[in-house]
Amino acid sequence: MRRTPPERAADYFPIAYPAFMLGLFFVVPFAIMVAVSFFRRVQGGFYEPAFTFANYGRFLSVFFGEVLVFSLVLAGLVSAVCLLLGVPFTYFLTKLSRKAQVFWLVALLGVLSLSEVIIGFAWSTLLSRTAGLSNLLVAIGVMDRPDAWTPGFAAVLTGLVYQAFPYTVLVLYPSFSRLDPSLMEASRTLGASPLKAFSTVVLPVLRKTLIATFIIVFIFALGAYLLPQILGRPQHWTLSVLITDQAVYQSNMPFAAAMAVFLVVASLSLVVIVAALNRKGAGQ
Amino acid sequence: MSAVWLKRLFLSALAAFMTLPILVIAGVALNEKKTLAFPPQGFSLEWYAQAFTDDGWRAALVHSVLVATAAAAISVSIAVPIAWFLWRRVAPWARIVEVLGLAPFILPPVITALGALSFWATTGFYGQPWTVVISHGIFFVSLPLVTVTLGFATIDREIIEAGMTMGADDRTLLKTVVFPLVRPYIISGFAFAFVLSLNEYIVAYMTVGFTLETIPIKIFNALRYGYTPTMASVSVFFVLVAVVVFGLVARFGDLPKLLGAWSEGDKG
Amino acid sequence: MSGLELNRITKRFGAVAAVDDVSLTVPQGTFVCLLGPSGCGKTTLLRMIAGLEEPTSGVISVDGNRLNSTPAHKRDFGMVFQSLALFPHLSVGENIAYPLRIRGRSSSEQGARVKELLELVHLPGIEQRAITQLSGGQRQRVAIARALAVSPKLFLLDEPLSALDAKLREAMQVELRQLQQQLGITTIVVTHDQREAMSMSDQIVVMSEGRIQQMAAPIDMYRNPANSFVADFLGQANLIDAKADGPDALVPGGRIPGLSLVGSGGRISVRPEEVMVTSREDAPIHARVGFIRDMGASIEIHLDSEGAHYVVVASPQARPDCRVGDTVGLTIPAEACVVFESGRG
């Protein structure tokens, strides 16, 4: 079964069904969404075909500008914290025995697959006054009386890092586990302390992976929509929250669609950067 | 030696960070009264039982499991032919289909959700229970696509050629060699899609949010309209399902390899 | 004393002893090969010397200084890895300068030293090249240059030539030996290739199952293997069970006149080139030719007799006149035999 170009019509058959499904249920909805972003909203929750940039124009206000900046800063912060924790963690993880690695991976996958709803609920409980960590701190005498740490920016950040950390590790994992361990050892025998060897060999060798991971996690965090609502105040809402809000509660589909298109453009440009970086890496 | 302790401390702190929220929700579900106090006041397993006995929660549970099973089946049914075609055929244009399969997972989920909402509203099926099955099926194609593509990549083409020299035609090879080798990757792809669909909120919310309650939707509604320990017990149940499913994947397959590490033998 | 000294080194991985009670002295300036089949513990031993593994017990010392608790990066040894472990993100020059940079040497000193080392390994002027642009042999030399950058006390190489093709490997063996003699550096090479060990080293250490089987100069070891494992591993050997019979020894198919054994008998080892094929009727041993391998420069004849197997290597000048299936005579000179598990009378 050598790789051959498809020749007869029957050869194309296997790809026809996936192409049809993805075309109808992903490309078409996407196109509709783009189209709707140019439509005009009609009172009563509907919209009519039109070609207007008003929805995009509305987006260029101070309020949405602030939301956009906040979303980007938040995503960047989450991504940075995740890498800061995830890089040493993943390095240690790949040095563990196969059995211990499996244990951690199952746990990470378990957390990764948790619903944002559950994560939000768990952290709002953990940071609350009645059931939270502060009770623990009161019990051991660090604090005088329990305090509520949610809603707040720190709570949003913590929740998002919690959600994105397993994702970060799983993105880093292949590169770290395929890294030739003798590179680190060579560096040791050439006079570098473990920390020095890590910073002069492991990090530079994996530089492209690290940048790519930063961007992938950044996009992941940009998509957060529930945690900012559950753990934050309205000023902590991200673009994704506003899109949901406009689409479902304000019934302003055209505006929601315009924001979504903008989010896609932002995400896609980042993906293009990642792809370009990877191609450069493969060329070497 | 202090470096070793520092490393242990770091790993333990992260382990605590990962498990603490889950421990707390497991704890609050033990409260005797309808409160979310922690440490729990009194002890009762009633809330755990209620996840299955309360009509509303049980219905949501059934909905979630049905949707996840059907959606994962759709994901796999789309992903396997793509991976197979790319492995078997020289057809660079087919990469477009692959990218379409990966895109929903890479883009922020709200995009897929809004697209689905526009689509089902335009076609007039908005709110039909089966719409979420299809939308989830599309949303999670990426997961089996990644695992099954990896599965095909691990097949040594000489094995296939060996089969050909022994007289097997394409169909026989597919049935006797290729499929058995790829099967673990298909199963784990299904498992990934199943667990993630079970937990998915926004796509479900934007397609059937007002007509069909899945567990995440019900938990979110409960968050807004009054906490009950039942939502904690259901959450714990979901954590367990995820751990059991991935534990099974690890038990019957090589999890590190599925996630991109070299297999043990390759490491040398 | 100067040089490397290993005193009763043991390394356990769980219940398995990878290295089992090894003691070894390597005098300053010698070239030693650790030779053995894969899994014999030779690489583990080298890694312990480098500081990449810690011995379970025993003492490693260099020039009388105990090294056990000195971490790898403070030992000032040079090591060449099997994978070479060249840093892919650095150029050739940066790779070689790496140990100097780590030690905070000035960039002018780094540059001068890199230039000097590249000349030493016959690759002048390739500082700027990327590692990916080098051939296998060039990478090998760069890895060697990098390991020598700080003039290490000890030069360690783990299967350094295994990735090269046969011809290049032989050339590099000669070059490596010349380099070592030029620098006078104490060198330890791990290899599973007995030809490599024979052609490079002052001393060969044969290991098996974590233990040292024999340590000797190459030709001494070839002529006088300490046991049948060494005889078989280093070159080819006829390993034959022999019984004492007065002044002679009885072997399958006949006898070896003049080889008197102590006790009932033992195992003897004879190199194939010492055995002679003859057509004389009164030859002491008779055997049947099973297979002839003519390799141009030498001829290998495999023979069977009474369930035993003999190998003879003859030069083309002394080509024996025989064919597969013939029964021929063999002569084994008593003085060519090494006797194990017994002794000569």
Describe the structure.
The complex is a heterotrimer of chains A (284), B (268) and C (345). Chain A has helices at residues 9-36, 54-59, 62-95, 98-112, 116-126, 133-139, 153-178, 181-189, 194-205, 207-222, 227-231, 239-249, 253-283, and strands at residues 40-42, 46-48. Chain A is mainly alpha-helical. In chain A, strands 1-2 form a two-stranded antiparallel sheet. The longest helix of chain A is centred in the N-terminal third of the chain and has 34 residues, at 62-95. The mean pLDDT of chain A is 84. Chain B is mainly α and 268 residues long. Chain B has a domain at 55-226: Orthogonal Bundle (MetI-like fold). In chain B, 76% of the residues lie in helices and 0% in strands. In chain B, helix 1 packs across helix 12, helix 4 crosses helix 7 (142-153) and helix 7 runs antiparallel to helix 9 (170-199). Chain B is globular, with a radius of gyration of 22 Å. By secondary structure, chain C is an alpha+beta fold. Chain C folds into 2 domains: 3-232, P-loop containing nucleotide triphosphate hydrolases (Rossmann fold), CATH 3.40.50; 237-340, Beta Barrel (OB fold (Dihydrolipoamide Acetyltransferase, E2P)), CATH 2.40.50. Chain C is elongated, with a radius of gyration of 24 Å. At the A-B interface, helix 1, helix 3, helix 4, helix 5 and helix 7 of A face helix 1, helix 3, helix 4, helix 5 and helix 6 of B.
Query: What's the total count of β strands of chain A?
Result: 2
- Main sheet characteristics of chain B: none
Order of helices and strands of chain B: HHHHHHHHHHHHH
Which percent bin holds the helix content of chain A? Answer: over 70%
- Helical fraction of chain B equals over 70%
- How many domains comprise the coordinates of chain A? 1
Low-confidence stretches of chain B at least 5 residues in length (pLDDT < 50)? none
Helix- and strand-based class of chain B? Answer: mainly alpha
> Do you know the CATH architecture of chain A?
Orthogonal Bundle
Largest interface: A-B, 89 and 101 residues
What's the end-to-end separation of chain B, in Å?
28 Å
**Strand count, sense and closure of the main sheet of chain A?**
2 strands, antiparallel
Total helix count of chain A?
A: 13
End-to-end gap of chain A: 31 Å
CATH second-level architecture of the domain at 55-226 in chain B:
Orthogonal Bundle
Low-confidence stretches of chain A: none
Strand order across the biggest sheet of chain A? 1-2
